[in-house]
Amino acid sequence: MSKYDVAVIGSGPGGYVAAIRCAQLGMKTAIIEKYSTLGGTCLNVGCIPSKALLDSSHHYHDAVKHFEEHGIEIPGEVKVNLEKMMERKSSVVSQTCDGVKFLMDKNKIDVFEGVGSFKDKTHINIEKNDGETETIEAAKTIIATGSKPANLPFIELDKERVITSTEALKLKEIPKHMVVIGGGVIGLELGQVYRRLGAEVTVVEFLDRIIPTMDAALSKELQKVLKKQGVKFHTSTKVKSVERKGDEIIIKADDKKDKEIEIKADYCLVSVGRKPFTDGLNADGAGVKVDDKGRIEVNEHLQTNVDNIYAIGDVVKGAMLAHKAEEEGSFVAEIISGQKPHIDYNLIPGVVYTWPEVASVGKTEEQLKEDGVKYKEGKFPMRALGRSRASGDTDGFVKILADEKTDEVLGVHMIGARTADLIAEAVVAMEYRASAEDIARMSHAHPTYAEAVKEAALAATDNRALHV
Q: Any binding-site annotation on 219?
C-alpha cells in the first residue's frame, strides 16, 4: 500500500494548488481525480471554456458591430462557424489541463484516476474506471471535491434543451431563443455569448436585480448595458414550471405583480447557482461532518472535526470562486507544515466576465448602510477617459467607498473594459489598508483604463476628480 504525507481529493484549482504547495513544502503528495483530465470544473467546464467562448463571441460581435467605425471593411457577410469556435474552446481547455498534468509531474505528485472515498480517517479507497479498487494511506487529507450546478426541484434537466452551464459550453447550434433562469454570473456570461452570436436571450431572475450579491449600482449599470445589447430581463419573477414539448420549451412564471407570464424558447439554461459536491466521498467513513447544505464543516484553519482532514473551495462555506479555492489550497498546505498563513475573505474579489466586465472587492454600499458605517463615495465614469473613447468602451464607472473619518478604502466596485484586471489594484491597496488619498496620489499611466481608479479616489477625497 502506498503511503503519503498528504492526499488531495479533487484536482480543481483548489486541489491542484494545494498539492503543489504541499510538494513544495517537502511533503510526499498524492492527488485523486475521478475524471481522465485534471483541473476540475473550472478548467474543464467552467472558467476556462466560458472565457474562451466569451472572447471568440466578442471578436465576432466586434466584427459585425464595430469594425466599420474603425475603418475595417470585410467583404461579404461575417459568419459564425460554431463548430470551429467550439474546437478552439476545447483546444484551450486541453492545453490548460495538460499544463496541470505537467505541474504534477514537475512537483513529483502521484496522480490517481478514480473516485476517492474514505475507508477510514487515514485510508482512501480509489475506485477506478475499470472497476478495480486501490487503497492508499495518507497522514493528512485535503477534500477539494468542488461543486456542481444546482437546480430547482420542479425542473427536469434533459441536458439537451433544458440544460446547465456544462451543456451550454458545447451546443451544436446557436439557439433561436435561449431563456436563462438566474441572473447571476454564469447565466449572464453564457447568455451574452449566445446573444452576440445571434440568439434572442431572456433572463428570468427571482430577486429584484441581477448579480444580487454585488453592489446595486453595478447591477443597475450592467442591466442597462445588456439591455442595449438586446438581452431581455424579467426580475422579481418566480419560475413555476419548465416544460418541454418537442423542440420547444415553455416557461411559466409569476412576475412582480403576481401575474402569470409564459415564455417560449428552444433552449432553457438553468443557472441558479451551484451546490457542494461530495457524492461518493463517504465522509461518514472518516467521521467528517457535513452541514444541512451539503458543505463540509470546517474551523478557521479549514480543518474538519477530524483532526487530520481538511476541506477547501466550493465544498466549504464562502464564495464559490476558483481563486478563493486556490488561496485556501495554499493556506491549508502551510497550516499542515506548521506555518501561520492568513486569508482575508473580505478581500477576495468577485468578477463577471461579460463585456463590459464587472469587478468588486470589499464592502458594498448596501452592506455599509446595514452595518451603520459612515462612508463617503467617489465615482468616475469610464466615458470621461481618453483611453475609453479611443477603444470605444465608454460604458461603466469606478466607485470607491471610503471611511468618512479615516479615509480607509472599504470597498471598490467597477464596471467597464478590463475591470477584471483593474480590481487587483484595489485588492493590493486594501490589503495594505490604503486610504482613498493614497490611491489618488499614486501616478497612473496615461492613457489607461486604470486612470478611472485614480479619479474615483480623487472624487472620494474632497470631490477632487480632475476630468469631470
A: no
